[in-house]
Amino acid sequence: MNMNMGAAAVQTSTMPRPTGAPAASQTPAMPRQAGAAFTEAKTEAADAELVFDINKLNLHYGSFHGLKDVSIRIERNKIMALIGPSGCGKSTFLRTLNRMNDLIPYVSIDGLVCFDGKDIYGRNYDVTDLRKKVGMVFQKPNPFPKTVFDNITYGPKIHGKKNRKQLDEIVERTLKEVALWDEVKDRLHKPALGLSGGQQQRLCIARCLAVEPEVILMDEPTSALDPVATLKIEELMDGLREKYTIIIVTHNMQQAGRISNETAFFLHGEIVEIGDTETIFSTPTNKKTEEYITGRFG
Amino acid sequence: MRQNRFVEKSIEKLLFVAAAIATISVALITIFVFRSGLPAMSGYGFANFLFGADWSPGNGEYGILALTAGTLAVTFLALLIGIPTGVCCAVFLAEILPKRAAAVFKFAIELLAGIPSVVYGFFGLIVIVPIISEHVLPLWQRVNPDAQTTGLSILAGGFILAVMILPTIVSISENAISSVPQDYREASLAVGANKRETIVRVLIPAAKSGILASIILGMGRAIGETMAVMVLTGNVAMLPKGILDPVATLTGTIAMEMSYAGPTHQEALFGVGIVLFVIILILNLAAQAIARKMGAVGRE
Amino acid sequence: MNRKLGDISFYGIVLILSLATLAILIVIIAYVMRQGLPHISWEFLSQSPEHMGREGGILPIIVGTVFVTLLALAIATPIGVGAAVFFAEYSKEGRVVQVIRTFTEVLAGIPSIIFGLFGFAFFVVFMQMGWSILSGGLSLSLMILPTIIRSTEESLKTVPLSYREGSLSLGATKWETTVKVVLPCCRKGILTGLILGIGRAVGETAVLYLTIGGSIRIPTSLFDPARTMSMHMYMMTAEGISREKSFATAALLIVIILIVNSIANFISNRMKGAQ
C-alpha cells in the first residue's frame, strides 16, 4: 500500500523511460502534471493525501539559476529525503517550501508551489501561517538564548496561547515526543544553551512540534551531531512519521536509506531522479545517481 | 491575519521614521542656522564677512578672518602635536602591547575621550596657562625679547586640544592598523624585515586611509571644540603673529558673545556658525568617503 | 648597526609618546581629584549655591543635570534603538537608505556649538519653548542620538542569523522576532550605548549653554530653566567665582565619568566573554 502511494505521488518522475536517458529529457512531460495539479486543488477530497505539489519551480539568485524546473509532489505522513552534492540546490529547494528564501535579497522565484492546494507564493498568502504549518529544523541546533521552557512555548505564545496550564501541557507533550522529557524535566527553567548538541537539536524539534505543524522541513539536522545523537534523532523521525510529513535534506546516504520513503536526487539545481527510496538505492535508472549513491562523486 | 500584516507594515514605517529623524535633524539644523545667519552675511557682504580682518561687533564690523585664523592656528598646533602622538599610541596599542595591557591602555584612551571639555579647559587654565607665562615665556624672550603673554594663547589652546583629539586619532588609527591582513606582516617578516621595518614600511602605509580618516575626524573635533578653547585662547579677535599670542576662535566667539549679542550681532554669530558648519560638513564627508574607500579595498 | 639605531629611536619615540599620553591622563585626573575631592562634602551636594556659587552647594545643579540627561535619554533611546533596528533588520540597500545613513554620520560629526545654535534658533525661539530643560534636553537628545544608534546597531549585528531563522520558521513575524528574540540578545549593547550617552550628556556644555538658561534654582518643570554641572563649572571658571567650588564640581564630574566608563567597559567585556 505504502509503496503504491509512493509510486503514485512521483508518477511522472518515475515514468518508464529508456534507462540512462538524460534527466533533462523529462521536462517536456511536466506541463501535463500542471493541469493535474489544478484539478486536484478543486477536488480536494480525491487528493487529501497530497501536501506539497510543486510544479516547474525555477529560482534565480541574481543571475545564478539555482533551481531549474523542479517538480515534486509530496504526500502526507511520508519522509522524503533530498540528496545530492553540495551546492546542488537541495537546501535552497527546502527553503522555498516555507519561504525562508524571502530573507535573502535578489532571489526571484517562478513556478507553482502549492501547499494544501494553495499557491504559497500567491499574492495574499500569509507567510506566518505557512511557517506555522510548515516547521523547520536547521543544520546547526539554534535554540534561543532563553530557558528550555521559553524555547518551546515561544511559538505557541506567538500564536496566541497564553494559558499557563495549556503551555505546561505543550512543553511536556512535545518533550516526550522527542524523548527529551526525562533528561530535562528538572531543568525546564534553565538556559537551553546549557544542553548538549544532540539535546539542543531535539529541543529545536520539540520547539517546532509545539506549534503543531503539518510538515517538518529538516535541513541536514544531524550533520553537526555525533553518531549517538544522530541515531537518536533518526529513531525520533521514524516515530514522527505517523503524525507529520517530513522533508529532509541530508548528506548522509545511509541516513536517507534508513529513514525515508522517497528520495529525490538533485544535481546542478535539477532533479535527476526521484522515486521510491528502495528503488533509487538498489536500481537507480540514472548513471549520475548511481555514481553519487555509490560514492563515486560529490 | 490581514490585520497582522497591516501592523507589520505600520511598524516598518515607524522604524523608517525613527531612522529618518537624524536626517531630518540635519536638514532642520541646516535650514535654521542658514536662515538665521545668511541675512547678516549678505548684509555685510559675503567677501567682507569671510575675509574682513576686523571683528568688532560694537562698531558694526563683522569680518571673521581673525576668527578663522585663530581656529586654524589652534587646530594646526593641535594636529602637529596630536598626529604623531596619536599614531604612535595606535602603533603601540595595535602592534606592541600584549592584549591585556592593550585593554588597559584602551580604557585610558576612552577615559581621555570622556573627560568633559570644561574640565580640560579648567585644567589648562589652572595648570598650563601659568606654566606658559612663567616658564615658556622667559625661554621665548631669549629669542624675542619683546614677547609678552598672559599665557592665554594659541599654545595653551592647541596643547589641550591635542590631548582632546587624541582619542579620535588613536582609536580609528588603531582599528585601521589592526585590520591590516596578517599576510602582510608575514610577507614582510619573511623577506627579512624586522618588526619596526614592518610597521613603518608595510603596516602604516597599508593603513594610511584609516589613519587619514582619523586625522580628518580629529581635525573636525578640534575645529568644533568650544568650551576648552574658549577658556584658554584669550578670545582676542586679532590676527596672531606668534604662538604665544591670544586668539579668538569661531566656536569660542559664538559661545562667548551669544549671550549678550544684539539682533544684528546675533545674526552675524549665526553666520559664523554657517562657516563652521560648512567646514565640518566638508571634513566629515571627506572622512566618510575615505572610510568607505578603505572598506571597499578591505573587502576585495 | 644602523638598523639597531633605527629600532631604538623608533621604539623610544613610540614608548615616550604613549607614556606621555598616559601620563597626561593621570595628571589631569589626579590633579583635579586632589584639589577637588576635599571640597566635596554632604553640604556641597545637598545645599543650594549662595552668592552665585561662591558659597554653598550645587544641589539644584545636580538636579538640573539629572533632569536634562534623563530627558535627553528618554527622547533619544526609543528613536535611536528604532533607527538601529531599521538599519540592521529592515533596510534594504538602496539610495534612500544610503542617504539617511550618510546623514546619520554627518549628525555625529556636527560640533556641539552648532547644536547649541540650532537649539536656540529652533526650540528656544521658533518653537517658543524658551530657555528651559525641554529645549536643552531636546537639543542634547539630537546630539547623543548617533551614539545610541551606532552602539545598538553594532550589537544587533552580533546576533546570529540562526536565531532570526529559528523564530521566523515558527511563524513569528519580523517584528515579533525582533522584539522577542533579537533585541533581548542586545540588552547589554543597548545599555552600553545609553551609558555612553549619559557620559556625553553629563559632560556637555556648549549645547546647553545656549538652550537651557542657567538658573541656579531647583527646576520644578520641563519649562523651567536650569544649569548643569559642566555649565556651572564653566560659569564659575569664566567669571572667576570660586576656584574651590570649581575644583569640587570638576572632581564630581570626573568621578561620574569614571563610573560611567567603567560600567560601559565592564558590560562590553562581559558581552565579549559571553559569546
Could you walk me through the main structural features you see in this protein, from its secondary elements to its overall organization?
- The complex is a heterotrimer of chains A (298), B (300) and C (275).
- Chain A has helices at 2-9, 30-42, 90-96, 127-133, 148-158, 164-177, 181-184, 197-209, 227-240, 253-259, 277-282, 287-293; strands spanning 50-61, 64-75, 79-83, 107-115, 118-119, 134-137, 215-219, 245-249, 262-267, 270-276.
- The two termini of chain A are 34 Å apart.
- Chain A is built from twelve helices and ten strands.
- Chain A is an alpha/beta fold and 298 residues long.
- Chain B has twelve helices and two strands.
- In chain B, a hairpin with a 4-residue loop joins β1 (55-56) and β2 (61-62).
- Chain B is globular.
- The two termini of chain B are 44 Å apart.
- Chain C has a two-stranded antiparallel ribbon with strand order 1-2.
- In chain C, a hairpin with a 4-residue loop joins β1 (49-50) and β2 (55-56).
- In chain C, α5 (112-126) packs across α6 and α11 packs antiparallel against α12 (243-274).
